[in-house]
């Protein structure tokens, strides 16, 4: 078990058993020490768990949990690509998308659920550049989707 997976266990979290792509794309691409991860929605083993649109009436803790689940899916794909999560040197960038009603202004706070997990797991190396936007729809009406770029050894 990698050091990062041990930290996940200490947080009471685990990686999903699988993370199947939903369309014609690959889960990741490697290039010159970069791992580019395709967007992952808030699903577990292919089963969506949270749905949009998100509004001011939606529980923020639940939406941050949805973003955290996206991050767990990203980590699953990273482990598949690298063999070990310990090869991740730094998280460079996250892109976060929240399926929200027009005018919803808390998208960045939702995506903190993913960002905070990477910081907990990787410390300063988990701090990253980020985009967090609200959109009118996501695949299977999922509430949240997150993609990532990482530098790896």
UniProtKB/TrEMBL annotation:
Transmembrane segments: none annotated. Residues 6-144 form the Endoribonuclease L-PSP/chorismate mutase-like domain. InterPro entries: Endoribo_LPSP/chorism_mut-like, RutC-like_sf. PANTHER family: ENDORIBONUCLEASE L-PSP_CHORISMATE MUTASE-LIKE DOMAIN-CONTAINING PROTEIN, ENDORIBONUCLEASE-RELATED. This is RidA family protein. It comes from Litorisediminicola beolgyonensis.
């Amino acid at each position: 078990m990698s050091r990062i997976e041990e930290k996940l266990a200490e947080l009471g979290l685990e990686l999903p058993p699988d993370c199947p792509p939903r369309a014609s794309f690959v889960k990741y691409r490697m290039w010159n020490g970069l791992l580019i991860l395709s967007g992952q929605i808030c699903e577990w083993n292919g089963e969506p768990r949270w749905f949009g649109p998100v509004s001011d009436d939606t529980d923020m803790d639940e939406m941050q949990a949805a973003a955290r689940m996206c991050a767990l899916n990203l980590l699953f794909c990273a482990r598949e690509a690298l063999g070990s999560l310990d090869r991740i040197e730094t998280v460079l960038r996250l892109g976060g998308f929240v399926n929200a009603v027009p005018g919803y202004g808390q998208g960045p706070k939702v995506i903190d659920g993913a960002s905070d997990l990477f910081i907990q797991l990787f410390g300063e190396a988990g701090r990253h550049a980020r985009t967090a936007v609200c959109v009118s729809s996501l695949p299977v009406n999922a509430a949240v989707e997150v993609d990532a770029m990482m530098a790896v050894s």
